[in-house]
Amino acid sequence: MKALLLTLPLCLFAAQAAQAACYADYKAKRDDPLRLHYGVAETAAPCDQPEAAAQDLRPRLAADGWQLLAVVSLFGEEGLEKRRDSAGDYFLRY
Question: Span of the secretion signal (predicted)?
C-alpha cells in the first residue's frame, strides 16, 4: 500500500507532462499564383514526432488551400513568443 501511495504522484506527474502542449513551426504554399507562408500551430502530436505533427497539420492547412511543405521544428510553450513576429498572421491560425 505504501508503495502505491508513493508511485501514484509520480504517475500523475508523468501523465501531466505527456499532455504538455506541443507546437510546430512549418512552411506551406499555395499555387497559382505561388504564395508561401511560415506559421506556428499547436499540434496534438507528441513533440518528438515530426511526421505525426505533419499528419496533424496537413488537413487543417488543406482546408484553406495550403499545402504543407515542411515541419521546421517542434517545441513547447517556451518557444512561442520568439516565433510570434515571424509567423505574423499565421501565428496559431491553424
Answer: 1-20
